[in-house]
Design brief:
- Helix 1 (6-12) packs across helix 2 and helix 7 runs antiparallel to helix 8.
- The radius of gyration is 34 Å and the shape is rod-shaped.
- By secondary structure, the chain is mostly helical.
- The protein has helices at residues 6-12, 17-25, 39-48, 55-67, 78-84, 99-122, 128-158, 163-201; strands spanning 3-4, 37-38.
- The longest helix is centred in the C-terminal third of the chain and has 39 residues, at 163-201.
- It has a two-stranded antiparallel ribbon.
- The chain has two domains: 3-74, no CATH class; 126-201.
- It has eight helices and two strands; from the N terminus they run βααβαααααα.
- It comes from Pseudomonas fragi.
- Residues 50-78 are annotated as: Disordered.
- This is Terminase small subunit.
Length: 202
């Protein structure tokens, strides 16, 4: 195994000393108790936590900023980044998250979002809040319609003496109430979904 001082490691990678110091502050250098850089482990860690499509540009820009004494352009430090990252993105041993896993996770959820938007536009996927609201409204409507039936038909039933006739009258009244609830609840659901869709489009 090869161990180098920070300055020697910087020279071996053709990097500036300030850039290597920045890597150390980010926790991207694997150091021995004596403060030497474990070359193989550090190279592996840097490769894992770097964006391969932007690595060369990032290195050049950071070297230029560091050589001119400018502060880093990173919006947050490594500690804050690790605290904000989802738990399953962190590597064992407290290492920084694997860039490739993070990018794959991001692309996965981006694809899921696009797919969900597609099904919403097709009308095959709706928002749960709209369905919950319509279900609650339908339940209240059905309750009110059924509770109104006795008041509506009580005078008619009072004048009836035939049990079969009373049963038929009750069934017809209840059926009308249920049919009214079905028509109104369907219209209410469509109205709720159209409002949600319009709000989502805005």
């Amino acid at each position: 195994m090869e161990y180098l001082s920070k300055s020697a490691y910087a020279a071996s990678r053709n990097w500036s000393k300030p850039w290597v110091s920045k890597l150390a502050k980010q926790g991207r250098l694997v150091l021995t108790p004596a403060g030497l850089v474990d070359v193989a482990a550090t190279n592996a860690l840097i490769d894992k936590t770097s964006d391969p499509s932007k690595a060369s540009v990032s290195v050049r820009h950071e070297q230029e900023r560091a050589s001119k004494g400018h502060p880093s352009a990173d919006p947050i430090g490594p500690a804050a980044f690790l605290q904000a990252a989802p738990g399953d993105l962190s590597e064992p041993g407290g290492l920084r998250p694997d860039f490739h896993k993070a990018r794959a996770r991001r692309e996965h959820f981006n694809a899921m979002t696009v797919e969900a938007d597609f099904y919403k536009n097709q009308g095959t996927l709706v928002e749960m809040s709209a369905v919950d609201e319509a279900a609650y409204t339908t339940g209240r409507l059905l309750r009110d319609l059924l509770l109104a039936v006795p008041t509506q038909i009580a005078p008619e039933l009072a004048a009836m003496t035939d049990a079969w006739g009373i049963e038929k009258h009750l069934m017809a009244s209840i059926r009308r109430a249920l049919e009214d609830a079905e028509r109104i609840s369907t219209a209410d659901l469509r109205h709720s979904l159209s409002i949600k869709k319009d709000n989502h489009a805005e």
